[in-house]
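To: structure desk
From: M.T.
Subject: fold request, one chain
Message: Could you run this one when you get a chance? Sequence is below, nothing fancy, just the single chain.
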Amino acid sequence: MVMKRCQKNKMNAFIFAVLMTLVCVNFATGDLTVVNSVSGPMKGLKTQNKQTGKDVYEFRGIPFGKPPIGPLRFKKPEPADKWTDTLDATEFGAACPQSTPAMMLDFKPSKMSEDCLFLNVYVPTHVDKNRKLPVMVWIYGGGLVFGFSNQYDGGWIATQGDVIVVTINYRLDIFGFFTVDHPASKGNYGLWDQKLALQWVHDNIASFGGDPGSVTIFGESAGGWSVSFQSLIPQNKGLFQRAIAQSGVVNELTMLTKKQINERTIDLAKKTSCPINDMYKFTDCLRDKDISELLKATDMFSFMPEDRIEVFQPQYIPVVDGELFQDHPLRSLKDKKSDVAQFFGSLDLMAGFTSNEGLMMALGILPKVQENFDFNTTESIPLRFICKGMIDPYAEKFYKNDSDVKEKLCKFYTTENSLDEQSMRATDFIADSMFGYNVKRMLDYHSSFGGRTYQYLFSKEKPLMGYAPKWGKGSGHGEELQFMFDAKVLLPSLNISLDTPEEQHFANVIIGYWTSFARKGEPEGAVEWKPFDTTSKYYLDLDTVTTLKSDLRPEVMNFWLKDMPSIELDPVDDINVHDEL
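Reply: Done. Structure tokens follow.
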């Protein structure tokens, strides 16, 4: 790996490294600070957070894994080599290869490379290894298809909550989750990347003044999935103690079945002309392909159907691999004595979602789909589209086209009261099937295992993308992010800002709850946030007026958890075989 280094001759670099090792201190010169970490010395940058006006020291583009290129593509990451020269950690590293949907060009990284296993550390006010600050590790969302760490400026949370924030990169799409259910490529590389980054934090964060025994992982959407997955891996014991899953947890749709793996393998072979008679040769063939060719072959945004909207499920997502997961975690959680359940219950957990998760996704319905069904989402979403264009495809994909399931869903998610109400029911279906009951189920499991459990609903209305249809009510998917991260960094073209003192105060309330939870496992604020359990079912409604409530949407939760049949998982006998072909 070629790394940026301070300009010193070799003798000076050697003497500097030796002195740093002997005295084991960090020092600052002007706007630069050097930290002597376990991995090696590094030079960071002093900046000032715009939201708080406080100093923050940023260490950018720190390599935690070797470049996963060539023979390391489609393999578990290897730890980055330690260094002796001072690493220039004042610039962000490249984002991992990804396709960016045309409607979300703000999410397109400025630089992209397979050499992308970098993380960033944000230290509030000053660097002192004796501070023992809580550590919060952010895992970005983006459907496991797109996203990158430096899109999320950790300075606001760090300086407002007096915690160290770490943001990490991980491999995405085919590069992070390609599998053939065979030893040639078992998959889950993106999760392994996250795990390696957490190990780096555990080993190095004390040098920045962080407490390796007080680490919270948090993330939104696919970042929430990732947090949830990492919380169900017993080998992670000791790497973190708390987890915050925002709008995403492990469920039946977040792991591929054997049937789906086979379908994706055949499809990929056709698009790349790589032979599948030998899985080792097939995988090696894919290792020789250009990044652009693989992204083109797997770009889900290019192959979306024009006669329906399908519940979001990327082509490449986690699998039962026999290493990270011996079985589907949902099945493991049914046994309280399993290693998975025991580890999960040992963590403190906060989880929740926004009040209208489906709003943004409904607005993303392709124009051709709207044309085929003769409607415009800005005006309304009609009943006929809910049943034929949304529910039917869902039942076909996950319930073997069961007509009873279709009828039950269609009846529950349609109304003749008004077009506005019907349109909201469409967003409800998206939200409930992907988020609501899945989060509730995970909270039920966790609280029954004896862990400290907290639920929230984010209800503050401020459209992140700058607009909402006239019928749209509630907070859409990801809208809490603008109250935690600098929206001008997150979505630079939209010029979003917190316009009033009330909005700024609300952001501080959110960050206060999140960082107090990271500090001691109990979210504290002006309104008492009582723990969730299966009896009280307490949750905090985060809105302009924050309120403690109980039993969130019981009709919806009961419908999905009691009235609807479960989506079938692969039979036990069909998993973890990894036989040679």
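Reply (cont.): The two ends are 36 Å apart (CA to CA). Let me know if you need anything else for the meeting.
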